[in-house]
Amino acid sequence: MSIQDKVIEIIAEQAVLEPSDVTLESTLEDLGIDSLGLVESIFAIEEAFDISVPFNANEPSASDFDISSVASIISGIQSLVSEQA
Amino acid sequence: MKRVVITGAGTVNALGHNVDQTLEAMREGRCGIGPLDLRDVERLAVQIGAQVQDFESEKLFNRQQIALFDRFTQFALVAAREAIGQSGLEFHGDLAAKSGVVFGNSGGGMQTLDENYRTVYEDGKNRVHPFVVPKLMNNAAASHVSMEFNLKGPSFTVASACASSNHAMAQAFQMVQSGMSPVMITGGAESMLCFGGVKAWEGLRVMSKDACRPFSANRNGMVQGEGAGAFVFEELEHAKARGADVLAEIVGFAMSSDAADIVMPSKQGAARAISGALENARLNREDVGYINAHGTGTAANDKTECSAVADVFGPHADALMMSSTKSMHGHLIGGTGAVELLACIMAVRDGIVAPTIGYEEADPECAIDVVPNEARDANVEVALSNAFAFGGLNAVLALRRF
């Protein structure tokens, strides 16, 4: 499974949606994922890819990790995974 | 001062998943204690407990709720759903704004602590699930009850070890009695039957390895249980105005502190709480027909408790009944007083006194009618519920037939 598909699967599960309902343009707000859902998604992503996502809920915009859309999250994960490789 | 009545009751414990099943088990003198089913049980010296059987979380909560609710919170919600359902209350507007939840609990989310300590210490992982804190905090149960039922008034958790539920219910009683809240949801919940929870208790060497036999000369310790009890405490006129069924009236309470020893009970502290409850409820000693004992089945508690009762009641101590239902549902620690209040309700409402099971041998130091082994029909007007905690914190409630 590609990184994109895996991330979409995790986000879809959190939003209680089918993966096909999650588009790259969707925002977490569109998908009904609240702040607790966001940290749970990040935890699941960290577990799935064995990476550490630099995200602080107090200042979501302060880190390099962009959560403004599904596409930006996927691209952030891709670079974290490649940095690790 | 307002009068305070109970208009709903709910529970889940080793004897049943609701009040009817629990009271039936108490009437039949059934024992909920058995072999513990938990991870690493073979490393425990104490391998028995009163676990809640066949608790199907998946049918009671959705996936997101299960991720967020420790077992003690799940128990609290199940009990609160039953109690509030029975009361018929819905919370909107002013009623919602003034009504709250005071719940007893001692250990917090022990299952969550146990699992996550394993993750970081035993498995060496450096990352834990983000819900660890909201699951383990000991106000989680009270908070989730407030959220599920829109209770926007005063809500908090009371922790006084084995007296937590009685302190919580005494607090809720005062809030309704004073006119501060028309309705309070109260009771307690606990779930300590995990490896770390039982191992910690083992250290004190007060646990029985075979059975809980309160007041019996051959008693050899307490047995832990788990579960929750919940009640709707309602101002009498409020209950009457909506034609609610009343289970019993709470007529008084007292609290006292031994100020003596962190684990050894004090006869004087217990006696002051019992006599204080009579005074607070304006009862005569002779009015009391039944006492639900703290009755842990330890050598120290049971003789101290009997001695305190003898001191307070004098000759009437020979006429009243005192049983320990912990012999059946185990010691629910912070939730225990809530489940035990059900036995008091059964005594005053149904005229049936729950027994002390496992009673085998008379102890001259516990010379009181402990209703050995079989439930009894009796005309009980007033019942007391005793709770005497580690730390010397005591709380006694008084119930009257309505």
Count of DSSP-assigned helices of chain A: 3
Order of helices and strands of chain B: EHEEHHHHEHHHEHEHEHEHEHEHHEEEE
Oligomer: heterodimer
Mean pLDDT of chain A, nearest integer? 91
Distance between the termini of chain A: 17 Å
Spatial shape of chain B: globular
Percentage of residues assigned to helices of chain A = 40-55%
- In helices, the fraction of residues of chain B equals 25-40%
CATH topology of the largest domain in chain B: Peroxisomal Thiolase, Chain A, domain 1
Uncertain spans of chain B, ≥5 residues at pLDDT below 50?
Answer: none
- CATH superfamily descriptor of chain A: ACP-like
Mean pLDDT of chain B, to the nearest integer, reads 97
Task: Describe the 3D structure.
The complex is a heterodimer of chains A (85) and B (402). Chain A has 85 residues and is mostly helical. Chain A has a single domain, classed as ACP-like (Non-ribosomal Peptide Synthetase Peptidyl Carrier Protein, Chain A). Chain A is 51% helix and 0% strand. Chain A has three helices and no strands. Chain A has helices at 3-15, 35-49, 70-84. In chain A, helix 1 (3-15) packs antiparallel against helix 2 (35-49). Chain B has 402 residues and is α/β, with parallel strands linked by helices. Chain B folds into two domains: 4-241, Peroxisomal Thiolase, Chain A, domain 1, CATH 3.40.47.10; 254-400, Thiolase/Chalcone synthase (Peroxisomal Thiolase, Chain A, domain 1). Chain B has helices spanning 19-28, 57-60, 63-68, 71-87, 93-98, 110-122, 132-136, 140-149, 164-177, 195-204, 236-241, 267-280, 299-313, 326-329, 336-350; strands spanning 4-13, 34-35, 48-49, 100-104, 156-158, 183-190, 227-235, 248-257, 288-292, 321-323, 352-353, 376-377, 382-389, 393-400. In chain B, the strands form three sheets. Chain B has a ten-stranded mixed β-sheet, sandwiched between helices. A two-stranded antiparallel ribbon of chain B has the order 2-3. In chain B, helix 4 (71-87) runs parallel beside helix 8. Chain B is globular. Chain B starts with a strand and ends with a strand. The interface between A and B is small, with 9 and 9 residues.
